[in-house]
Amino acid sequence: MKFIMTTKAKQAKKPIQLRIIFILNALMMFLPFLVYFLVTNNKIEMDVVPMHVIYTGIAYIISFGALVYCILNKKFFAFRTMFFINLLIALPVGVDGGIVVVIVSFILSHTKQVKSFFNASKLINRC
To answer: What's the pTM value of the predicted model, to 2 decimals?
Structure first.
């Protein structure tokens, strides 16, 4: 039996690029806490105060919440602004992984599929 997807069902499906952005940014919430745990338990020397890593993790959690809000409400400009904010979070501590995630996320946000996902609600609301 073949099912025909309605416009609303097609609209609800998020593109794979957006899912990758979501997963990468979700990982960024946990990595600072993992680094802090490894540094403090193994007495590893760092150029950064370990407590600043915790602050970075907290900032990433807040940033991720805002990113999810932007995706759910399809706020494209705010969605991309979150990448700039993530860059500002990563720079003081020198989190190279965070900078890479920002670059990859920003590049993926320029794909046609991601842009059309955010524009789909604007087209439907006009009708």
So the answer is: 0.80
Domain spans of the chain?
15-126
Give the dihedral of Cα atoms 6, 8, 12, 17; nearest 10 deg. 70
Q: What is the pLDDT of residue 29?
A: 92
Q: Are 75 and 61 in contact (CB under 8 A)?
A: no
Using an 8 Å Cβ cutoff, are 21 and 91 in contact?
no
**Residue in 87, 89, 69 with CA at minimum distance from that of residue 79:** 69
Q: Is the pLDDT of residue 121 over 70?
A: no
- DSSP code, position 47: S
Instruction: Work out the number of other CB atoms within 10 angstroms of the CB of residue 90.
Output: 22
Within 13 A of 118's CA, how many CA atoms are on the CB side?
18
